Amino acid sequence: MERETLRALVASARNGASGAVLIDGDPGVGKTTLMDAVLDRLTAVRILRIVGYEVEAALPYAALQRLCRPLAPYVNELAPIQREALRVATGLAEGPAPERALVGLGILSLLARAGDDEPLVCVVDDAQHLDGESLDVLGFVARRLSAESVAMLFAAREDEAVARSLAGVPRLELAGLDAESAAAVLRDAVDGEIDPGVVADFVSFTDGNPLALRELGAQWSIEELTAVSIAHSPVPLGRRLEAHYSARVATLSHDARRWVLVAAAEATGDAAVVRAAAARLGLPPTASGEVEALHLVEIQGTVRFRHPLVRSAVYNGATDADRRAAHAALCIETSARGRREFAAWHAAAACGGPDAGVAAELAAVADLAGARGGFASRARLLARAAALSPEPTLRAERFVSAAEAAIAAGAGVLSRQLLARADRAALDPVGRGRLLVVEAMCAVYLADPLTVRDGLAALLCAADAFHGLAPDREQKALLIALNSSMTVEDRAIGADLEQLAIRMRAASDVESPCAVVLRATSAFALEEYEVAVPLLRTAVAMLDAMDDDDLLEVSALAVSPCIALWDCDAASRLLTRTVRAGTERGALREVDSALWVLSAVELSRVNPRRAGEHLAQAEELRRALGYADEQTVNAAYLAWQGGPRAVVEQIVHAMSESGYGGVVRMAVGALGIREIAEGEYHSAFDRLAGLIRRPYLQASHHHLAELVEAAVRSDNRAAARAAAATIDRYAAASGTTWVTGLAERCAALLADDADAERHFLASIETLDTHSHRGDCARSRLVYGEWLRRVRRRADARVQLVAARDVFTEVGADAFAERARRELTAAGAKPDESAAVVGPLTSQETAVARLAAQGATNADIGSALFISSNTVDYHLRKVFRKLGVTSRRQLAEHFPRS
């Protein structure tokens, strides 16, 4: 069955349908043998094959470079940004450190292009020994395969890093042989006739592990096997199999044992390096012969161990002094060949204790890894450098630097572990500030409810530590603190918004782009709105003028001053730029965050369908990265979609308990808006009034208009007038389309019949733009209701039909249903045939929207991190589903937002 699974995978690749599989199982169970059997005599395909080497684990993209070296002629055909990312990642060029996702897209494009010429099979054996960057990138590529002529086969033992990096890749768990086949293996291996009962026992003892059966048959006599069977003694499996190999190694001469130790320590199989290092240790050229005679290794250009457990047995069975001597010799030989990273690794392994020189070299190599985008490798190298650093302050600083690299690589747990090894007392103020910043980032990244509420206070302490010493770090710490505060809101422990705002104002004296945002936000929090508006406008203008790289650095906060000005268009513009720039550079975490916030912006201006598209795109990116779940569930979108109220409220309670006040506010507001749509005005008023009483920066701006409607309809007119007066003040100071249109709607709801129509019409006229069509429909809805009440039923139907059609278009189903009810009451039968885009998958929708905007297949592939082949595949399906024949026709289904 396993062979058929792999053959089907390869056959699909030949037919242009890509796929991947992870074969996992115990050592010796036959993973490599299985792949060999499938690939043997395979024709009309190109096979790329590598084996993971443990020595490369700290060298970023080392395995990837080996796998793709035969594809070098295709590199120049890649998009320039992808080509440059691959060159920097593999050390062939200097430049900004590329994001792993961008490297992944480059590799995906490279494999797809090569597969166009000839179907491609990529085989990665012993994947547990790959460097972290290569493993992550290959996992990314495996998850994005679709319509390319590429098959990927991974083989690995059970390993946490492999499971994490290859999450989402189909698994093929390889168990032992069936009883009949296992018995045949043992009978073939033994010399003579063996009792069937003994055979059955050993098949059971080994779970059919073919390597164990072969080793037992070759090394034990029939009498020994029978005795073990009778006594039910332990047999060599797993660790015992390693001990079995250790016993065989122990029979070697002293020179042969030292030679095989050098081979085990070298790990890449480079026979020339092994021979040179062995000679440096005074070993004769014939030392390897004895090892080969026992079939422990095979030397044919490279040194290949019979099984990874042989290498493990050799290395672990040697004395510490002998291991360090082998690594010292290998350090000299790899250094002489210009392999600086390998030399540093061997130098570290040769150390018997702290060594400042070796630690400094490891730190330098770590810098090289970081420059290539290898943040995970940088973290591991710096951690080793820290452990070897004799000076306490430098050791602590290197652990902090390692933690910073780990969090940059997305390894929150590792980052925390590294911080725990840093001696805080040995750090200077800047070092302590850096440590506090990373701690806070870990809490957010890991969604840790025990520490996420402490983040604001910790970041303020970090800013204090930086004050007067590192103003740029101080300002960035405060921007992170602002983001943290909007995440937890009033659930923060040990600090509040006022303290943050005062601290931001104090730090904004040193001019920088960060200072502009800090100054504007602090004014918004501390001053009257009219005072803050000019500073907020300056901040938005500055953000608009930023180049993409700088905008990415502050992207999480770009929306705040925009919404403070009631300017959804500016927020959408900056966030869309962030998504575009982030996808171009492979900064998918920033893209994920921007898409999430974009969805919130669209919900606030009544466009749940567009919000859902953003969330679906974010979900697709998380799948690309191997993250199956959201850290924070978007309960607000669930409420808009008509999810059961009890379920939404359960999620709200859980998020509140976890400290996510911002998400809770969004969800509670969405429930209130849904209750308005369903006519439950008293309940809506109670929900929304609570939010308005506890405002948090701009988070409840749009809830003011909702409160006015709920208050008017629930006979709380005093509260309605107070909320409307607040909106009027915002409108007078800001003057944007959104707040002006909402202010007119609120005035209409509160006006007597003589003045109401004038305000309704002014609201509709102001909001009648593509970006605010949802809110315009809300104004048409209440205007239509008013018209029906004053018995102008024909006029009411005109407004209600227009409102219903827009609500249907933007996916505001509850409001569409309310419009239908009002139409029925106005004497018309609602038309249920309003057009809805679909039925497309989220991926097809994203492809179609970009194509409708004029993007090429290559552009779309880069934006969605798929290959051009997959784009073409999706477009063919979109055309068929929508009944269109050209991209121009797509624009009718997907107008620009």
Automatic annotation (TrEMBL):
Family annotation (Pfam families)? AAA_16, GerE
Using the record's annotation, list all stretches that form the HTH luxR-type domain. 833-897
Where does the UniProt annotation place the signal sequence?
none
The processes (GO biological process) annotated in the record are: regulation of DNA-templated transcription
User: Which is one GO molecular function term here?
Assistant: DNA binding
The keyword ATP-binding belongs to this UniProt entry's keyword annotation: yes
UniProt cross-references to SUPFAM superfamilies, sorted A to Z: C-terminal effector domain of the bipartite response regulators (SSF46894), P-loop containing nucleoside triphosphate hydrolases (SSF52540)
Entry-linked PANTHER family: TESTICULAR SOLUBLE ADENYLYL CYCLASE, TRANSCRIPTIONAL ACTIVATOR DOMAIN
- State the name under which the record lists this protein: Helix-turn-helix domain-containing protein
Organism equals Microbacterium ulmi
